[in-house]
## 1
Amino acid sequence: MKFIVGFAALFVSGLVVALSVGNEEKHRVSDDVVRAKRFELIDKKGRVRIEMRMDNDDPVLSFKDVNGRDRVIVFQRADATGMYIKDISGDNRVGLAQFPHGGGLAMHGENGKGSAVYVLMNDKARLDIYNQKGKLSDRWPSDKND
């Protein structure tokens, strides 16, 4: 009986090692490169704090708080590159983007109420101010100057 238990333990140990080595080699390109579809950086308590992943073949980098909520997201797509900074409630508070022919920076108030949006498009800059109801309240330069 001891022989069977010992053999079973040896077999399971060997299987675990074989699967680990096989999996490691599958993702290792060289001693300096590891390939995967997703990476997670965890803290001392095992919580994911940074995640790198692909989203429909586009790279995304997320920084998470201790509760696992996204707080900073950096993304790159064929048509745009950007970053969102979120508050503890998950609302976007700052957005930065580059897109064809321009880019922009948006800062939003609590619960998305009130915002200032700076846009540079086709070499023309504009600053839009939105009130607490989400209505455009001011624009510089004004449309009258276009």
## 2
Amino acid sequence: MAKLYPFMKDQNYIEIVKEYRDALLHLEKQYKYKTENTTVKESAKKKFKEILAQLEKFHADKKKYYSDREKTIKNSYKNHEPNYSNPEAEILKRQDFDLKLSIASDNDLQDMAKDTDLNLNEYQMNRLTKEFKDRNIQSMELSRRRLTEKINKKHETDPNYQKLEKEASYLWTIQPRGNDTNLLLPLEQDNIHSLNRLTSFPRPERLKDDIRALNKGIEIMEQQVMSTQEWQTRLIEPINEDIKKYIDDEVGKGREFKIKEYDDLDLRAVRGADEFDVVHE
């Protein structure tokens, strides 16, 4: 089965592919009516620049989208305060670890820092790092750096963060590279289409094959978008009805509501983001 990358489910990307398909259709028509070569070249060059600019903006916007959400998850770990079910046991555990550090030799500390199998929580890693600093052990730079990385990268084990990273990694397949820029389609064959085709004047037969593949790819992507929208509608409609009924009931009792609505991609609508606006709910 052909790979359907996340960006292929974005209507903005589909529109760029359509724009490219339409440009090839126009080129095919120019061939048919034997348009002067100079006119064909100028038209193709102009269209190439337009589509490349659209793809550059799409690519930059998607990178920012993923970066913003990854940052939100990362910050949530930085600001997270552990909730201990047994505070007394945690205090004893910390005291025991502190004692262990106080009697450990410099070599013991270094071994502890390098032991990747040693499962240290955030408090223990912070204490170990502080112990290095307090003892002024200059030879521990590498170990201290590794500890810092462990502390600062806990978010990387978060499933949502990993999902975002994976989806963002697919963007390299459509990275704008001037004449070497490609568009990708969810097809088993003919899935890579170079924008440079516009200015390389392919044979009419090749043009027909490209247009056929583009139409098929567009059809698959639009079907996916439609299916996703239908699923979201079926999921959200009952919830919206319940919310509306609740608000109507409360208004009937004399309560006033101040409702703000944000786009789903707006960070004010993303729970966990610094910008999250609880009134959105």
## 3
Amino acid sequence: MKSPRRGAWLAALLWLRVAGAAESGHSGPPVEVLAAAWRAGDARAVTGHCTRAGRVQLELRQAQGSYGAAQLEVVLARLFAALETRALTFEDEQREAHEETAFARAEWRHRARDGGVETRETLTFALHLEGNVWRVVEIRSSP
């Protein structure tokens, strides 16, 4: 028997697939498209999946603050210029959704572009339903 929580997540995931495909022209859900943009270091593409209705809260080791889309693009561009993303992987069981809010956790492996030790962080993306499209409203990291 499936739990109500799992059922809610599966319904939200289906909604993410439909809304993401309609909004972005991509066949995958926004978290997969978002992950591809993050791995590529494409700040513009990442911010394309962020809220249009306000600011995005960013709480990373390397950058903290509340940013509008243009500001966030600059902050992420600097972050991606300094760090080489080795992997960003979302796990299905690390996703949950409620009526208008969803959370997805991913493992982010990165290192400084000038070398150094690879670092692993867990990123939590909070998404909010805006119209019929899920948008990122917060990105937090934890060790």
## 4
Amino acid sequence: MSTIQRTGNVGAMSSWVVSKKELLRRYRAHASRKQKGGGTQVENCQENADAEIDGGPAWLQLSRVLQNLTGKGIATMLGRLSKHGNERVVVKVQDAAAALRELEVQKRLAGLDGFVEFHCMFRCAGDKQYIESYGTAAELRRSRVCAAKGLEMGVILMPYYDGGSLESMLRTKNQSGRPWSAEEDALVASVLSKVIRDVYRAYETQRFVHGDLFAKNIVLTAEGEPALIDFELSKFDEPGMRFWRNVESLLGDVGNYWKQRELDDIARTLFVHMAYDVAPSRRTVDDLLAALAART
């Protein structure tokens, strides 16, 4: 594949899949030019980004990030983003408030399975310097680095999952026109079961609700292991009704592509939980997963 591929462009957010080698190569080229005195203008370091990808300005923002990292620092950062030996990362440039929100959620979910881990950097308003965030989001908020100007831009670097999103997998399969095989059915059922169990564990410990629990926000490894991404709408200390509504939304979304009648039947059983604000428990979640296994 190309070393750089655009994956999204929504509002102020742009994202690409980028080869880690390409990031290092560009960083070293930028650093070399700067040392020689020919790269003082950031625009000189862009290396024909407009010709290579759609959206040079956002790549230019990333170029500024690279110039404020040491060679060892960026190599270490990219090493932490490895996922099953994958040599690519996803780079997402967005406004600071959204990036900070995602960072806060990730920090609180640290150690739980099923949620993507990423590296985050921020830029102060009006400055070119970026802050690498290795501490907690609360520490970043308390930092006086941006106290006078506030945060302007956030950059998230996260592992690239070879299997793509669950939504893209389901859509591609449906568009093929071929019937679902037993192995494919088992994969989708397994992904759903694991995601539901993972979000329940997060709810059990912190009453966490993802808030945007749809197939597009579930990414897969090449082996079919899922992870949740995009935490901008996530909340903590939520009532049980919100948890069940999230799960019902997921079943309805996947049902648009796969076993719609069966998933609709299972989703209807959740209405009682939502109506009476039944707190999720291991028993109720186990009952749900048992119904999922029996019907799919």
